[in-house]
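Next up, sample data.

:::
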Amino acid sequence: MGDAPGGRPRPLPGTPADAPDAPGAVVPGIPGARPAPDTPVPLASQPAARPRQEGGTRPESESAESLRLRYVGAATRRIARGIDLDEIVLGLCRSVVPTFTDAILVYLRDPLPVGDERPVEPLVLRLRRTDRIPEEPTETPIPEIPGAGVRLPLVPAPEVSGAAETTRVRMDGPLAEVLRGVRPLFADSPQVAAALAELVNTDVPGGRRAILAPLRGRRRVIGAAVLLRRPDRPPFENDDLLVAAQLATHTALGVDKAALYGREADIADQLQRAMLPDSLPQPTGVQLSSRYLPAAETARVGGDWYDALPLPGSRVALIVGDVMGHSMQSAAIMGQLRTTVQTLAGLDLPPQEVLYHLDEQAQRLGHDRMATCVYAVYDPIAHRLVVANAGHPPPVMLHGDGRTEVLRVPEGAPIGVGGVPFEAVELPAPAGATLLLYTDGLVESRTRDVWSGIERLRERLAAVGSIVCPPPLEPLCDEVLDILGPGDRDDDIALLAARFDGIAPSDVAYWFLEPHPQTARRARRLVRRALQRWGLDELADSVELLVSEVVTNAVRYAGRPITLRLLRTDVLRCEVGDDAPQLPRMRHAAPQEETGRGLFLVHRMTQRWGATRLSAGKVVWFELPLPPSAPHPLPSGP
């Protein structure tokens, strides 16, 4: 498509110059207007008369007013189709260029006020979009679509390439006065010309070739639109102000709607992020990765969740749950259940007891609070996995040799049913294996049932494992999500992947000690021998002192044998367990006191320390960094 003399685009080959769909054609009823794609325009070839429903006939040519109403109706419908800010503004630009105007600039407040919140002062307008019909022919052919006219791509307008990106509106200036008036105006008066110059801060067509249309939402002016026509086109007429007013009103209401929708979507995103872990822990002996996908853009919150919680003895709890529904209420219930699980896990209860108490909590929240959950505890030292299930899809494991299996765990009843016992099963968890916990949104859809989806998931894992095993966790999660087809996602999805590395037996030292006055001395001797065997003699003095303090405290309260365990991983970890439920607390001893300084020493000399209550007693632990010259422990192989 080339340019004819005078700047008019030449019609495509084979297109009559006076056809309504030709680029230079005039839309009947709108002087100087040109047809835009997707905008219905009455054709000159329509029948001269058509019967009315009342039995009459329609005039040979519709009135200009009727055609104008048809154009405004089509344009406002196009604007109203948008749901976010960019779609609304684009809908306005596509509706007016080139049908109604040659170029358009859209300015919006920055920041854009939302709902009933008070706008920020001073008033600042930011250029959101500029569009125009192109001067030069496009390199790619433009297809001719019957009845749709010629599709003209819109590009940034060179006439206003220097337009101000931001404009700070002076409250006593001409632009503020025009915006307060709300009505669209021609730039043929000194006041409007001055307002237009203040807004764009560059040379633009004036007179009746420019319309300045304020965009007023429900309560306030939220922006302005500038409509421009080139000299080779008839200027705007008085009736065009009515068209501009209608388009500006619908655009402003759409921008208000998009701002409200954007805020609600942002609240939903923040709520979902707050309900899910910010980051996964990195416990010893296991690697973790996760994914979460909402059900749809219009339902960004849901009841699916995942979690990974470190437990005493270097164990880790792996949890995935699903509250029925994907709404704000489901997310709120999910948050309460997740908090309950974290509290129960801190008590180090067996998995089946965690689900039992979680079921009780769900019943307290209401009779219709239903959820499914799988709770697994991995022990990297014993290489064992204990799993309890409450109506959730079973986990799938990819072994180090590429073999895949669906774990046989008791199905159990969903959380919230009440009065139903839960069972746990203990399974081997060899080093190099990968465990996948997921919600039913990954495997169930309108086109397939749960078990078909689980089999498809197992096959995908087998295919990945046949290429490289064990595969990297992050790409593995992406591969797993690829089993979803274009229309398969009906529910939100939570996915938790755990790679079992384990801790080699050679990196663990474990003793039972009787609680008597000589126990601390024996503990120091055992610890020194273990550190010599590992080549950690540099830590011997510090570890002996710390172990002596913790063991002495355990001997003071214990009634049964205490446990002492050393773990060599990326740090040196010491754990002392006894059957006394009271947790120790650090205090500052007075100068005349002879006790109360043990935990203060532990706090000052260690990298981390803590105390965890068990179902029968407690564990006090501390960690020390390994010296740079220390030999690194070998990974536990399959």
Observations:
- The first strand starts at residue 103 and ends at 109.
- Residues 340 and 614 are 17 Å apart (CA to CA).
- Residues 238-275 form the longest helix (38 residues).
- The chain has twelve helices and 23 strands.
